[in-house]
Amino acid sequence: MTRLLHISASPRGDRSRSDKVARRLIAGLGAAEVETLDLAAATLPAFDGAAIEGRYDLIEGRAVDPAVIAAWEGIRATVAHFLSFDTHVFSVPMWNFGVPWRLKQYIDVLTQPGLAFTVSAEGVTGLAAGRRAVLVCSGALDIRPGQPGAELDFQTAYMRAWLGFIGVTDVHELQVRPTYGSPEEVEAAMERAYAEADALAGLLRG
Ligand SMILES: Cc1cc2nc3c(=O)[nH]c(=O)nc-3n(C[C@H](O)[C@H](O)[C@H](O)COP(=O)(O)O)c2cc1C
């Protein structure tokens, strides 16, 4: 592992529970280079009408209209930056059963034909193949796998589906739940997540 990008989707700064567990994991991984992308503070390219028109031109193999070139420069740079890392650690709070909107915007900017995936008669090929991802998912409710309500976790399921689409199959997850309850319950959830982060770091370090 050489270059690690920590993508933080929580706007809660130092108070973020998903970030705390992600930072614990990252400290144990010993990557040569670590960069943090704070999505709440980052300026992401807009993904607006012009960019979408250019996207269809790209998918259908037409030249991209010069009017949308500037929009696509920002998008291309964002995808190139993402692909320049070999490991991606996502801290992802559950927001209304899914992911926070800034993370969704980032994913919408990244997921471009010809940049993050290609389509041919054989199907879709993800261009992020060979990379590793770790999902650190937090939520107020204890809907970890195997718990009642686990089927409501569209946050982890969505992130796994998207990573698979862009070709990332080496995916690990840490669940930080429940983060709402008595202080003892929340503390126990944090301690469990830290222990799982330490174990995962040991496994991935080999
Ligand atoms: C807008 C918003 C929506 C939320 N929706 C859910 C939800 O659907 N399910 C849930 O279990 N927790 C929900 N929560 C609680 C957060 O997931 C929880 O506080 C989590 O620990 C936040 O992670 P963070 O500390 O890393 O920001 C929501 C919080 C916010 C701010």
UniProtKB/TrEMBL annotation:
| Gene Ontology MF term list | electron transfer activity; FMN binding; oxidoreductase activity, acting on NAD(P)H as acceptor; oxidoreductase activity, acting on NAD(P)H, quinone or similar compound as acceptor
Occurrences of domain Flavodoxin-like fold (ranges): 3-199
Keywords assigned by UniProt?
Flavoprotein, FMN, NAD, Oxidoreductase
The superkingdom listed in its UniProt entry is: Bacteria
- Reactions catalysed: N,N-dimethyl-1,4-phenylenediamine + anthranilate + 2 NAD(+) = 2-(4-dimethylaminophenyl)diazenylbenzoate + 2 NADH + 2 H(+); 2 a quinone + NADH + H(+) = 2 a 1,4-benzosemiquinone + NAD(+)
Q: Which Pfam families match?
A: Flavodoxin_2
Q: Where does FMN bind?
A: S10, S16, R17, S18, M94, W95, N96, F97
Q: What cofactor is this protein dependent on?
A: FMN
EC numbers listed for it are: 1.6.5.-, 1.7.1.17
Q: How is the cofactor bound?
A: Binds 1 FMN per subunit.
Q: How does it assemble?
A: Homodimer.
User: What's this chain's function?
Assistant: Also exhibits azoreductase activity. Catalyzes the reductive cleavage of the azo bond in aromatic azo compounds to the corresponding amines.
Q: Which HAMAP family match?
A: Azoreductase_type1
Q: Which family does it belong to?
A: Belongs to the azoreductase type 1 family.
Question: What's the protein called, per UniProt?
Answer: FMN dependent NADH:quinone oxidoreductase
Organism of provenance: Novosphingobium aerophilum
Q: Which gene encodes it?
A: azoR
